[in-house]
Amino acid sequence: MRELLAKYEDKTPEIVFHWNDPETEAEGWVVINSLRGGAAGGGTRMRKGLNMNEVLSLAKTMEVKFTVSGPAIGGAKSGINFDPKDPRKKGVLERWYKAVSPLLKSYYGTGGDLNVDEIHEVIPITEESGVWHPQEGVFAGHFQPTDADKINRIGQLRQGVIKVIENPKFSPDVTRKYTVADMITGYGVAEAVHHYYDIYGGDIKGKRAVVQGFGNVGAAAAYYLAQMGAKIVGIIDIVGGLINEEGFTFEEIQAMYLNKKGNTLGGDNLIPFAEMNERIWNLETEIFAPCAASRLITQDQIDRMIDTGLEVISCGANVPFADKEIFFGPIMEHTDAKVSLIPDFISNCGMARVFAYFMERKVQMTDDAIFNDTSTIIRNAIQKTYDQNKNKKNISNTAFEIALKQLL
Q1: CATH of the domain at 95
Q2: How many domains is the chain partitioned into structurally?
Q3: Which of 206, 226, 241, 310 could form a disulfide with 236 if both were Cys (CB 3.0 to 4.6 A apart)?
Q4: Looking at the structure, do residues 151 and 186 belong to the same domain, yes or no?
């Protein structure tokens, strides 16, 4: 696996598009690792301090993710170095998407990512730039459909991603009109844990869980884990956190989801971040779901969790460990050798899978069909890993080997 990984990481990306905004200090990149299958896909993120290397590593991550989620295309990513809280954000995004629209019409498909919203920003702004849908390039480059088929499938994709969830099994509150895009990634993170215990042995019910991050992914992961019977004992977010060593009830987690402030944990009784960041890693827990930003988790934090009984990690964040390597750095390798580590390209593939699902010809548009499809894809990936390595350790190592053999 090491040789395969080194070969893959060292491979130069096919296309690097570099943009400087003429009206602000914003700088952006599209990195297309390859045009495997005639196209590439990956979301658009924005944060202050982002650089091209971060975008490159995420593009390579996306390519590995497509080996699980489909379609069989190359990985890409867009990144803009700009403060997302700046009031000039909308103008930056408008000029960015106008600049990259030729790529989006030909061979590159994008979506939402960190600080860029799929429904309220990506879809309407790309439409203004003359793009039928942010995934149009994947249709054009990979599927190469007739115009009529392209119109039908784009219509299906448009409807599906913004579909309001009607089934109370999948929505914290059906009256608030949560969409598939709001919930599906966190759902996949929780389902990965459920399938892990089902395949490798054990029961998720009663297992204690710690969740890092309470944005779209972390909040939904906490909601679905609690729904499955796991006991959330700690949540840490950028604004602080909450601890209940007996485990919060499902109703309490549901209320936290409904009361979150944007992408952060709400409430007046939050433990300050500094105190929370010291205490949470010592909680007795079997499940850890890192769903905050990339490259945050240190080896000390992991070792403290292992000492208190950690069994499985389901990654909601891309590359959650504080390694400088693109994929498999020393902290991740150390963790993989000690506990069951489900890699990000399996556990957080929900949104990528939804795109792939709706690109197929005439699929069912029900909540059950959409969510069960993502669950099945994740289960199949974990089952393949188990079939090759029945040990509860080195799961990520095995999963990477399976994926890289498809790419090299």
Answers
A1: 3.40.50.10860
A2: 2
A3: 241
A4: no
